[in-house]
Amino acid sequence: MARKRIREAETAEIDITPMMDIVFIMLIFFIVTTSFVKEAGIDVNKPEAAQAQKKPSATIFIAIRANGEIWMDKRTVDVERVSANIERLRAESPTDTIIVQADKEAKHGIVMEVMDQIKAADPSLVISIAGETK
């Protein structure tokens, strides 16, 4: 009597669980190490500077429009609220440099008031004025 052999179909499976673990670990690593830049939220027409130098990167930008509007974190703020907003943004992302982007038509007095508010938030902060280089 002939015996019939029943062969099970051999299926090749690849276990992707270790690969998925590595992908998730890399994703968490990149999320944790990313620094987020808090931009002012508007573009200003900055004056040109012949002797401008590159400054260290910062995460807090303050933009001042020609009409006197002050922008931080993509929204307008009053000049009295600049220091409170700086403290809030520094709590989220610590930095020691604040970049002020003032329109070349902005009034000097408003720029000085903003700089006073920055120093009121923390006198050790470095204020950098952004200008266009030639």
UniProtKB/TrEMBL annotation:
GO biological process, one term: protein transport
A GO CC term attached to the entry: plasma membrane
PANTHER family for this protein: BIOPOLYMER TRANSPORT PROTEIN EXBD2 (PTHR30558:SF13), EXBD MEMBRANE COMPONENT OF PMF-DRIVEN MACROMOLECULE IMPORT SYSTEM (PTHR30558)
InterPro entries: ExbD
Taxonomic source organism: Rheinheimera pacifica
Name of the featured protein: Biopolymer transport protein ExbD
Family membership noted in the UniProt record: Belongs to the ExbD/TolR family.
Transmembrane segments: 20-37
Key words of the record: Cell membrane, Membrane, Protein transport, Transmembrane, Transmembrane helix, Transport
Subcellular compartments: Cell membrane
Recorded topology in the membrane: Single-pass membrane protein; Single-pass type II membrane protein
Gene Ontology MF term list: transmembrane transporter activity
Keyword Zinc attributed: no
Pfam families tied to this protein: ExbD
Keyword flag Membrane: yes
